[in-house]
Amino acid sequence: MDALVLKDSEFALFQKMIYETAGINMSDAKKALVSGRLAKRVKHYGLSSFGEYFKLLNSDKRGEFQMAVDLLTTNETFFFREPKHFDFLRERILPHWLNGPRRIWSAASSSGEEAYTLAMVLAAHARTASWEIVGTDISTRVLQKARSGHYIMERSRNIPDTYLKKYCLKGTGTQDGTFLIGKELRDRVSFRHANLKTDLSQLGGFDLIMLRNVLIYFDIETKQQVVAQVVRRLKPGGYLMVGHSESLNGISRDVDVILPSVYRKS
Question: How many whole angstroms separate alpha carbon 187 and alpha carbon 168?
């Protein structure tokens, strides 16, 4: 069999597919990444080209199509990423949450580190015992990882020792070198499959939404569409946080800036 090569015309098909599905603008620099992540799937089906695989995706909108989306949308995350947001939550938001229920949404939660970070902060500092966290992602593969709450020990490097000892279980024996988020926290966090471009009303309303390091992948039109959908889920007086390198300037007038990357709905 000839070497499998992703042609420019084939790459353009996947670029269009992921934009229409998830709103992600995949630059030409991502061609090698796409080739590497999809090559095994092409070979799995015994196909001779990426073009044939694309045709297969269009005939199968459920199983393999979701697999391709999973492979092309996985993003990096880690515990206590951009810690100033969690400081703001602890110091400026939680002291005013005197009663519940309170709900937080980790949008584009990937493999769950952000959602569990939120859970640790709330378990340690919330003045109301009635709270829940919902994490969503377009990738079913990372959601499965998130639900397990099971990570290699290297992922714990940014978790403060007090939280690590109180809320995480160190693996032993066959699980040596790993840790598990404690059941007390896992029971307070749920993960659901969701596309930020679609109607999100089934999620309900939230007091805080984390939409961090997501908008950088979208063009202006998609940013406006996604933020509008997200802000509809934000309760009056609720907070929205985006990544430190992101801004809602020119994107939304429905929230007011409190600090760079921190917004509030009137």
Answer: 13
8: pLDDT strictly greater than 60? yes
Q: Given pLDDT bands bounded at 50, 70 and 90, which one contains residue 61?
A: low
| DSSP result, 204-223 | --EEEEEE-S-GGGS-HHHH
Give yes or no for a contact between 237 and 264, defined as CB atoms under 8 angstroms apart. Answer: yes
Segments making up each domain of the chain, as ranges: 8-73, 84-264
Topology (CATH) of 8-73: Chemotaxis Receptor Methyltransferase Cher; domain 1 (1.10.155)
- Determine the Cα–Cα distance for residues 198 and 194; give it in Å rounded to an integer: 8
- Answer for the pair 113, 79: CB distance below 8 angstroms, yes or no: yes
Tokens describing residue 109: 């939660």
Fold match flag (8-73 vs 84-264): no
Beta strand residue intervals within the chain, DSSP E = 102-106, 131-137, 150-152, 168-170, 178-181, 189-193, 206-211, 234-242, 256-259, 262-264
pTM here? 0.90
Separation in Å, CA 75 to CA 71, 78, 214, 216, 217: 10, 10, 9, 12, 11
Alpha-carbon span 260 to 54, nearest angstrom: 41
What residues are annotated to the active site?
A: 37, 137
CA–CA dist 246, 11 (Å, integer):
28
Mean local confidence (pLDDT), 43-67? 89
Class assignment of domain 84-264? alpha beta
* pLDDT at residue 76 greater than cutoff 90: no
